Amino acid sequence: MAGAGDKEEGECLNSGVGGGDINDDGEEGSRVDALREGGCGGGFQGVTGRDRDMAPITGNSIHRSSSRPQLDLSKAAIQGNFEEKNPTILLPNQSDDISHLALDIGGSLIKLVFFSRHEDDPVDDTRKKTVKQRLGLSNICRRSYPILGGRLHFVKFETHKINECLDFIDSKQLHRGIDSHRWGSGTSDSTSRGRVVIKATGGGAYKFADLFKERLGVSIEKEDEMDCLVAGANFLLKAIRHEAFTHFEGQKEFVQIDTNELFPYLLVNIGSGVSMIKVDGEGKFQRVSGTNVGGGTYWGLGRLLTKCTSFDELLELSQRGDNRTIDMLVGDIYGGMDYSKIGLSASTIASSFGKAISENKELEDYRPEDISLSLLRMISYNIGQISYLNALRFGLKRIFFGGFFIRGHAYTMDTISFAVHFWSQGEMQAMFLRHEGFLGALGAFMSYEKHGLDDLMVHQFVERFPMGAPYTGGKIHGPPLADLNEKISWMEKFVQKGTEITAPVPMAKPGTTGLGGFEVPSSKGGTLRSDASALNVGVLHLVPSLEVFPLLADAKTYEPNTIDLSDQGELDYWFTVLLEHLPDLVDKAVASEGGTDDAKRRGDAFARAFSAHLARLMEEPTAYGKLGLANLLELREECLREFQFVDAYRGIKQRENEASLAVLPDLLSEIDSMSEEARLLTLIEGVLAANIFDWGSRACVDLYHKGTIIEIYRMSRNKMQRPWRVDDFDIFKQRMLGTGGEKPRPHKRALLFVDNSGADVILGMLPLARELLRRGTEVVLVGNSLPALNDVTAMELPDIVAEAAKHCNILRRAAEAGGLLVDAMNNTLDASKEELSFVPLMVVENGCGSPCIDLRQVSSELAAAAKDADLIVLEGMGRALHTNLNTRFKCDALKLAMVKNQRLAEKLFKGKIYDCVCKYEPAA
Ligand SMILES: Nc1ncnc2c1ncn2[C@@H]1O[C@H](COP(=O)(O)OP(=O)(O)O)[C@@H](O)[C@H]1O
Ligand SMILES: CC(C)(COP(=O)(O)O)[C@@H](O)C(=O)NCCC(=O)O
Ligand SMILES: [Mn+2]
Fold this sequence. Notes:
By secondary structure, the chain is an alpha/beta fold. It is built from 34 helices and 25 strands. Helix 14 links the parallel strand 15 and strand 16. Helix 13 crosses helix 14, helix 23 crosses helix 25 and helix 23 runs antiparallel to helix 27. Bound molecules: adenosine-5'-diphosphate (ADP), ligand PAZ and manganese (II) ion.
C-alpha cells in the first residue's frame, strides 16, 4: 500500500486532503500581490498591455467563483520595512482567516473536520460593480452575520495514535483560528474570549480532554454523540448532491434524496459499536437500538484470530477467503441438500464458524483469509438483520448506514444490503453515505453557533479532489505540506515508487452475495485499495454565492451531462482522449508560464496528478460521486490550477483575439450590406463556423497546423451547408423576423453563453450580439469565471468588447449603456437619459472554470441577469452538447455548436465530424 507507515512518505501523505489544499505561505503572498493589483484599479486597460493584463489577478489562489465577500481594506498599512519585496500588510479591520475544527474521538478512530476560509477576492472590479448596479444585485445578506466562503476538510487518525492527531492540529494551527465572535462556542463572548474552545464528540472528548488542554492549551466542549450523528447525517443528506448510494450485487448507484421527503429514516452508525437511531427531523430522533457486535468486534476478534496488523490487511484477507471451510452451511447439515421448505439453499450459512466445533482442527489449521471472510459476513449480516428488525418496528422504509466499519468496502455493503433486502422482501432499502465515518465530527462542527452552514443548500457546495486524493484520500500523518514545491516533490516521490502509484492497485470486481446472500465473494484474489483512497471524500468548497440557474424548466430533474459515463465503452473512449491530449496540454501550460524549469516541473507534476486521477476513476468511476464528461473536463482544469497554471492558453487566446479583431470591421460591413433575412442566416453560420477554434479538440488542433486563423475561419465558413445536422434555423428565423409581414416583438434580454476566445467570440458571437442589440434586445455575455482551455473569461470580455466597439457604434453605445467601457464607466452613474435609452450590452461571469456548464451552480450575477431574460444562446460543444443538449428552459433557447469529434457526432446525431447543430426550442 502506497506510503503507509513510512515516515518520509508519511509526511507526504499530508497533502492528500488536508495539507495539499492549503498553502499557508502562498496565501499570504497572494494577498499582498492581489492588494497591489487592487491598487491599480484592476480594470480592463485595453488588449495591448498584454502580460500585465493577462497576469493572474488572484495570485496563486483561484476559486470556482470570485463572487465572494470582500476584504475589509480600511486602515490597511504596511508593517515594517517599506523596501521589502513582499512586506506584510496589516488589515486591522479584517478578521483573520478562520480555520475551524471539530472532532469525533471514537473508540477506534479520531475523525477531524476543519474549515479553512477562502481567500477573499480583493480586486476592485469595476465590471462587477456596474453589473451589480444594472442587475439590481445587492449585498444585502439575509442573515445578521455573513456566511463564510471556505472549505471543509476531512481527516482521520487512529485513536491510539492520538499524538499524531495533536501534531497535525498543532502544525496547521487549527486551534488558533477560532473567532469567538463569529463562531461562538455557545458560551458568552466574555467567557470564551482568551480561551480556545474546540467542539468534540465521542467518548474521547471526555477521555482526552486533559491531553488537549496540556498539549494544545485548548478546552474541549463536549457535544452529545447521538445529537452529532443525526446533525451530521441530516446535513450531508441535505447539502451534498451525491452523498447517499445503494450498493447491491456489486452495483453502486447514487440516490437523489428529496429533502422534503427525507424523514423518517433509520440511521445505523457502525463504528466500534453500533447505534440505531430513528430520525424524524432536525434534532428530532430517538436511539432505538444498537448492538455491541460491530466494527470493533470485527477488527478486534479478527486481529486475534489472524494476527493481522491493520484493519485494512484484515479486510484484504477477506477478499481472498472462502468461508465454507469454517462456516457450517445448510448443506453440511442436510447432506448437501437445500432446505427448500423454508427457502434455504444448501449454500446458506446455517451457523457462522459452526464447522469449527466438529473438527479436530486448531486455529492454525484455518486460513486467515477464510476466518476474516467468515467474520466479516457474520457481523455485516447480523447488523443488516438487526437494522431491518428495527426499521420494521417503526415502519421505516429507508436505512442509512454510516461509520467507518463500512469503509467503502463493496462486499461489506453488499452483505448488509442483501440482509435488508432479503428480510424485508425488497420493501426496505439500505443506503450508504460517502462521508460514512464523519457524521459525528460533522455534527460537532455544526454545533458551533452561527456558522451559517445549517441553512446552506446543495448548490452552494462544490466538492474537489485535490492532488493527493487518488493516493491518500484522507490519510494523514505528520506535518502538512508547506508550499507548492513540496507538493511537486510529493508527486515526484510517488512516481519514483513505481507501479503502485502510476497504476493504482485495481479493486477486484465487487463480489455478489448471490442467492441467499451466502455465496463466496467472486472477488477472489483481488486486492483492496489502500485505506485512504477508499475514503472517497474530497474537500468541500463552500461558495455561498452560487445559485441554481433560475431559467431551468425543471431544476429537480436537471442533469447537465448528455453522455452517461457509466457505459464502459464511453468511459474508455473519453479516458483515452484525455490521456492523448495530455502531452500537448502540458506543453502549452509550461509555455504559458515562460517555459522555465520550474514550469516544467510543475507541468510534469500536473500530468502525473491528472493521470493518477484518471487511473483512480478508471478503476472506480464512482469514486468521486456520479461521473460525467463535464466532471472529467473540469477535473483537468482543476489539476492545472492546483499546480498554479493560471491560464495555459493565454498566449494562444491573445494571438487569436488580435487576428480576429483585425478582420472584424470588414466582417461587420459585409454583414451590414445584407438584407435582414440574409443577415440572420449569415450570423448563425458565422457562429457555427467560428466555433471551429477549439483547442480542446484533437482534430481541430491538427487543423491549425494547416493554415492561418483567418484562412481556417474562411474555409470553415465556406463549408457551411444547410441543412445542418440539426437545423431549426427556420423556426428561429420565424421567431426573430416573423412571417407574412408581421414583426414579432423582440426579445427583452438575451443571455449569450460564449465559448472560445478569438474568432469564436469575436467573429461569431459578438456580431450576433450586435444584431440582437440592434433589434432592441439587451444582451448579456456570459463568460467563464476562470480560464478553461481557450475559453474566453468574463474578465477578458470587456477588453474585447472595448476593442470591437472602436469600429462599431452599436457595440459602443450598448457597451457604454452596459457600463463596459472604461472611459464611460465613470459616467455611468450620472449617465444622461439619452445614453441610457440604448439597450445595454453587459458581461457576467458564469461561476465556473470548465468548458462545460452545470446550471445547478451558477454565479449570483448570472442568476440575477437571468431574471429578465427571455432568450438563451448556448454556444459550443462543452456548453451545448456535452452538457445541456437536452435541457429545457423556461424561455426560448438556441443551442449552437460545431461537433468537432467524430464519435460524438455519430453517437448524438448519427453524423460526422464538423457537422453543425442549430437547435432552437421555444420556451417550455
Ligand atoms: N484504519 C482503520 N483503523 C481501525 N479501524 C478501522 C480503520 N478503518 C476502518 N475501521 C473500522 O472502523 C471502526 C471504527 O469506526 P468509527 O466510525 O470511526 O467508530 P468509532 O467512533 O467507534 O471509532 C473500527 O472498529 C473498524 O472496524
Ligand atoms: C473540450 C471541448 C468540450 C471544448 O469544446 P468547445 O466547448 O470549446 O466547443 C471539446 O473540445 C471536446 O469535447 N473535445 C473532445 C476531445 C477531442 O475531440 O479531441
Ligand atoms: Mn471552449
